[in-house]
TrEMBL record:
NADP(+) binds at residues 6-11. PANTHER family: PYRROLINE-5-CARBOXYLATE REDUCTASE, PYRROLINE-5-CARBOXYLATE REDUCTASE 3. InterPro entries: 6-PGluconate_DH-like_C_sf, NAD(P)-bd_dom_sf, P5C_Rdtase_cat_N, P5CR-like_CS, P5CR_dimer, Pyrroline-COOH_reductase. It comes from Aminipila luticellarii. The lineage of its organism: Bacteria, Bacillati, Bacillota, Clostridia, Peptostreptococcales. It comes from the Bacteria. Belongs to the pyrroline-5-carboxylate reductase family. GO terms for cellular component: cytoplasm. It catalyses: L-proline + NAD(+) = (S)-1-pyrroline-5-carboxylate + NADH + 2 H(+); L-proline + NADP(+) = (S)-1-pyrroline-5-carboxylate + NADPH + 2 H(+). The gene is proC. Residues 2-97 form the Pyrroline-5-carboxylate reductase catalytic N-terminal domain. This is Pyrroline-5-carboxylate reductase. Catalyzes the reduction of 1-pyrroline-5-carboxylate (PCA) to L-proline.
Length: 266
């Protein structure tokens, strides 16, 4: 497989580095095209991958092309992609608000298109990525692309109709989690701990709790109950959070992200 990246900014670069470090692809099979030639040359030198000066050059060389540009760039780049697109190639998009149907309008109804929604923990190989495909993508092609995103964390295949939900629950949710960590750390500072140490205590506790959910398979509600000894400190904190509307507040933030995603896709 020859893999191409049109745009390799923070997210695209994280995906590229993660997949290379997995050892499942060699640098000689990777091609990158970007607008900033200075950054492109630096990246290609660092990772020993091929740099392409034009989209045409990259399209001619690659079997799987990851579209790592912002949504507002699609009207500019997609005509160039379409010019050299062939039906054996797979296009992978991670742009919010750009549907599979939007892309097929440029490259035709027979094109193989996959839409993904990773999140920023890709930078530490702990991403959660949704992967959706159209009917033209065969299982073998899909598996190759799916493997790319498994190399930077976890991936799940979902119907594209769930993409707005995905954005609420994982695409945007690292930001809510950072807010939670910061709030815990600030509370610890107010109780005498220095900020740097407080962030470590809060962040490690979030990491550990998340691993408990993923590795034990126990429902989060039950895990919460298990921690709450009657009359103890944890049940006191949980009751206070519930009284203040903690659950409803988080769900409101989630829904706001979902509704914004829907408006972006209109």
């Amino acid at each position: 497989m020859k893999l191409g990246f049109i745009g390799a900014g923070n997210m695209g670069g994280a995906i590229l580095r993660g997949y290379l470090s997995s050892g499942k692809i060699q640098p000689d099979d990777v091609f990158v095209c970007g607008r900033n030639m200075e950054k492109l040359e630096k990246l290609c030198h660092e990772l020993e991958v091929h740099g392409c000066r034009t989209i045409t050059e990259l399209m001619e060389a690659c079997d799987v092309i990851l579209l790592g540009v912002k949504p507002n760039m699609f009207p500019e780049i997609m005509p160039q992609v379409a010019e050299k697109y062939e039906k054996n190639k797979v296009l992978v998009s991670m742009a919010a608000g750009i549907t599979i149907e939007n892309i097929s309008e440029f490259v035709g109804p027979d094109a193989k298109i996959i839409r993904v929604m990773p999140n920023t923990p890709a930078m530490v190989k702990e991403a959660m990525t949704s992967v959706s495909r159209n009917a033209n993508v065969e299982d073998e092609c899909f598996s190759q692309v799916f493997d790319i995103f498994q190399s930077i964390g976890r991936a799940e295949e979902v119907d594209e109709q769930l993409i707005h939900c995905v954005i609420g629950v994982s695409g945007s949710s690292p930001a809510y989690t950072y807010m939670y960590i910061d709030a815990l750390a600030e509370a610890a500072v107010h109780n005498g701990m220095d900020k740097e140490q407080a962030v470590i205590f809060a962040a490690q506790s979030v990491l550990g709790a998340a691993k408990m959910v993923l590795e034990t398979g126990v429902d989060p509600v039950q895990l919460r109950i298990n921690v709450c000894s009657p009359g103890g400190t944890t049940i006191e904190a949980v009751n206070t959070l519930q009284e203040k509307g903690f659950t409803e507040l988080v769900q409101s933030g989630f829904q706001a992200a979902v509704e914004k995603s829907k408006r972006m896709s209109e």
